[in-house]
């Protein structure tokens, strides 16, 4: 089944289910703060593993104790799709497991 860009309403509905996430410049984005640099690094590794499993990858930024990511779907011209939200939901699960906020 081909991936299609989501409408603004679909994006807003999905964002309502993912507090802390937003769309900026046609990219789904979120930043997390963790307890230490090591914890942030571990979370990045786990995100990378999930991205490989989904075959859908975000831009990840590791700070001292922060992790930021942004994602859209290149195959549909850089629009936000259900693939991006599927990744976001999995990242949220990881963030909770890592104690991120």
Give the rounded overall mean pLDDT. 97
Number of strands: 4
Strand order of the largest sheet: 1-2-4-3
Portion of residues in beta strands equals: 15-25%
Estimate the helix proportion, in percent.
40-55%
Overall shape: it is globular
Q: Alpha-carbon distance between the termini?
A: 35 Å
Query: Cα-atom Rg, whole angstroms?
Result: 13 Å
Unreliable parts: none
Order of helices and strands: HEEHEEH
Q: What does the largest sheet look like?
A: 4 strands, antiparallel
Helix-strand category: alpha+beta
- The tally of helices reads 3
Commentary on this structure:
This protein is α+β, with helices and mostly antiparallel strands and 101 residues long. The chain is globular and about 40 Å long. Helix 2 (37-54) runs antiparallel to helix 3. The model has no long low-confidence stretch (mean pLDDT 97). Strands 1-2-4-3 form a four-stranded antiparallel beta sheet. The chain is built from three helices and four strands, in the order αββαββα.
Features:
20% strand; 3 helices; single chain; 101 residues; alpha+beta
Summarize the topology.
Layout: H1 8-16, E1 22-24, E2 27-33, H2 37-54, E3 59-62, E4 66-71, H3 82-97
Antiparallel strand pairs: 1-2, 2-4, 3-4
Helix pairs in contact: 2-3
In short:
This protein has helices spanning 8-16, 37-54, 82-97; strands at residues 22-24, 27-33, 59-62, 66-71.
């Amino acid at each position: 089944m081909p991936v299609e860009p989501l409408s603004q309403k679909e994006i807003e509905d999905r964002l309502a289910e993912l507090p802390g996430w937003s769309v900026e410049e046609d990219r789904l984005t979120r930043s997390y703060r963790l307890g230490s640099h090591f914890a942030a690094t571990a979370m990045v590794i786990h995100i990378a593993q999930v991205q490989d499993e989904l075959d859908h990858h975000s831009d990840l930024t590791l700070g001292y104790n922060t992790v930021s990511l942004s994602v859209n779907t290149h195959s549909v011209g850089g629009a936000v799709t259900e693939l991006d939200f599927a990744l976001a939901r999995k990242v949220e699960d990881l963030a909770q497991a890592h104690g991120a906020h």
